[in-house]
Specification:
With 438 residues, the protein is an alpha+beta fold. The protein has a domain at 40-172. 30% of the residues lie in helices and 19% in strands. It is built from nine helices and twelve strands. The longest helix has 43 residues, at 361-403. The chain is globular, with a radius of gyration of 21 Å.
C-alpha cells in the first residue's frame, strides 16, 4: 500500500455562520445532508477510461454517451474497475478548448475516489484555470460558510483510450439525490438559473422558462423530464419569491427564502469576483432548490468558479501557447459599492433578483454579520487549504500546462498570484461590505 502524504486535508474549523432565526428557518428548508469534515483528498488518483472499440468521445449530447470501462488506481481505498458511459460536457469549455471536460455515468451507483455513492460524476478539465484551484476556492468557501450541499472534489490524472489528458478535478454532478441535493420525491424542485438553459437557447424545451418578474432564465432540473405542467407550477411558485424581493418585504422574504443561504451565496460570488453573475437580466451557472411545497427556497449549490478572479475575457478562446490572464486587479466588484442602485459594479450589473435584496435593510445587516463573523477565519483556513493542495498537485499542474502547451506562465507564479489576490481581495472587500448602505 502506498503511504499517504502526511499533511492535513482542508479540515474545517469554522463555526456555522451567524444565524438569524435559525431554528425556525431549518423547519422549512427540509433535510440537509451532514457536511463532511474534509472535501478534498491527500492523494492524486489515476483514472484510465477505455471506450468500447476505442470509439471517440466527440459529443456532449446525452444520446451520445459512449460505453466504457473505468479503472481507478493510485490509492488502495480508491481502487476499482467498473463499467459506465462517458460524454463531453460544458459550454465554452467544450467548444473552445483542446482539453475537454467530461461527464461519467456509472452503470451502478458507487463510491468514486472516496466520495459518497452515486452514478454521475464530472471531470473538470480546468484548461483556462492556470492554478487548477479556482473551483477548489469556491467549494472551500461554500463548505466553510455552511452553504447547503457544497461539492466535494478530488484531483486525478486521466487517460482516455490510451491518451494522456493530464490533471482533472473530479467532482459531483449537481442533481437531486440523497448524497447530492436531497429533495422530496413528489414535491421537490431544483432549478438551474442559467441563460444557456433558457428559452432563447432551447426554445422548444418544456422544462425552461423566463421568470415572471425578473426575467431570470431558468430550467427545471428536478422533477426530471419536466412537463409543461411542471414548468408552469414551478414558475408560479418561484414568482412568490420574486414578489417578496421586489416588494422589499422582509417578513414575506423570510417565509419564501432561506435568507442566510442567499447572503452566503452572494458573499462567495463577490469574494471570487465571479462574472457569471453579470449577465443581466439573468446569470449563468446558478442553482436554487426547494425541498417541498412547504419549504423555503435555498440558494445553491455553488457551481462554476473559474470565470472569476479578475479573468481577462479577451483570452476566452483557445490561445495555445499564450494561456489565460487572471489576477490583474483585486478591486473589481460584481455587485458594486451600492448594489441596490447599481453603482460601482463590473460591466453592466447582476440581475435585480439579487440587487433588489440590498434594498432590504434587514438583509444587508444579515449579510454584513455573516461577513464580519467569518471573514478572518475563512481567509486563514482557505490559505492553509491551498497550501496543502499545492503540495499535492503543484508538479502535476505544471506537467499539465506543459502537456497542453500553456507556455506563457508557470504554475508556481500563478499560485503565488492567487494567494496574493485573495489576501488583498478580503482586505478590500472588508471595507466595501461593512459600508454597504441600508
Amino acid at each position: 500500500m502506498t503511504e499517504r502524504l502526511k499533511i492535513p486535508i482542508c479540515v474545517f474549523l469554522l463555526a456555522a455562520a451567524v444565524s438569524c432565526g435559525k431554528d425556525r428557518i431549518e423547519e422549512k428548508t427540509g433535510p440537509v445532508a451532514p457536511a463532511e469534515v474534509t472535501f478534498t483528498a491527500d492523494v492524486i488518483a489515476h483514472i484510465d477510461i477505455m471506450t468500447d472499440d476505442g470509439v471517440e468521445v466527440d459529443s456532449k449530447k446525452p444520446e451520445d454517451y459512449r460505453p466504457c470501462t473505468i479503472k481507478v488506481s493510485g490509492e488502495e481505498s480508491y481502487a476499482q474497475e467498473t463499467r459506465g458511459r462517458i460524454r463531453g460536457r460544458g459550454n465554452s469549455t467544450w467548444n473552445w478548448y483542446p482539453k475537454k471536460p467530461y461527464r461519467i455515468k456509472l452503470d451502478a451507483s458507487a463510491s468514486f475516489l472516496g466520495m459518497a455513492p452515486n452514478r454521475d460524476w464530472v471531470l473538470l478539465a480546468d484548461y483556462r484555470d492556470v492554478t487548477h484551484m479556482m473551483n477548489l476556492v469556491g467549494f472551500y468557501l461554500a463548505h466553510g460558510l455552511g452553504l447547503p450541499y457544497a461539492n466535494n472534489a478530488r484531483y486525478a490524472t486521466v487517460t482516455l483510450n490510451g491518451e494522456d489528458l493530464g490533471l482533472y478535478m473530479v467532482t459531483e454532478q449537481v442533481e437531486e439525490g440523497g448524497h447530492r441535493v436531497k429533495l422530496d420525491p413528489e414535491e421537490g424542485i431544483l432549478l438551474a438559473l442559467d441563460i444557456n438553459d433558457g428559452p432563447d437557447d432551447r426554445p422548444r424545451a418544456t422544462d425552461n422558462f423566463y421568470s415572471n418578474i425578473y426575467w431570470m432564465a431558468a430550467a427545471v432540473k428536478y422533477p426530471e423530464d419536466a412537463t409543461k405542467a411542471d414548468r408552469n407550477r414551478v414558475q408560479e411558485e418561484f414568482a412568490f419569491l420574486e414578489r417578496a424581493i421586489r416588494d422589499g418585504d422582509w417578513k414575506a422574504l423570510q417565509e419564501e427564502l432561506d435568507v442566510e443561504s442567499m447572503a452566503k451565496y452572494i458573499l462567495i460570488q463577490e469574494i471570487i469576483s465571479n462574472v457569471e453573475m453579470d449577465n443581466y437580466p439573468s446569470m449563468r451557472s446558478g442553482f436554487i432548490h426547494r425541498y417541498d411545497d412547504e419549504s423555503r427556497w435555498v440558494m445553491g449549490p455553488l457551481w462554476d468558479c473559474d470565470g472569476g478572479f479578475n479573468y481577462n475575457w479577451g483570452d476566452m478562446y483557445d490561445h495555445r501557447g499564450k494561456g489565460h490572464t487572471y489576477f490583474e486587479s483585486y478591486r473589481t466588484l460584481i455587485f458594486g459599492t451600492r448594489p441596490y442602485s447599481h453603482e460601482g459594479a463590473y460591466g453592466s450589473t447582476p440581475s435585480d433578483f439579487f440587487c433588489d435584496l440590498f434594498g432590504i435593510p434587514e438583509f444587508v445587516t444579515l449579510l454584513q454579520h455573516i461577513w464580519t463573523d467569518n471573514q478572518a477565519d475563512l481567509l486563514a483556513g482557505l490559505l492553509d487549504c491551498l497550501a496543502e493542495q499545492e503540495a499535492l498537485i503543484g508538479q502535476a499542474v505544471q506537467e499539465d500546462m506543459d502537456r497542453w502547451e500553456i507556455d506563457n506562465y508557470t504554475h508556481a507564479e500563478e499560485y503565488r498570484k492567487l494567494r496574493t489576490w485573495l489576501t488583498n481581495r478580503f482586505r478590500y472587500l472588508d471595507g466595501v461590505i461593512r459600508n454597504y448602505p441600508k
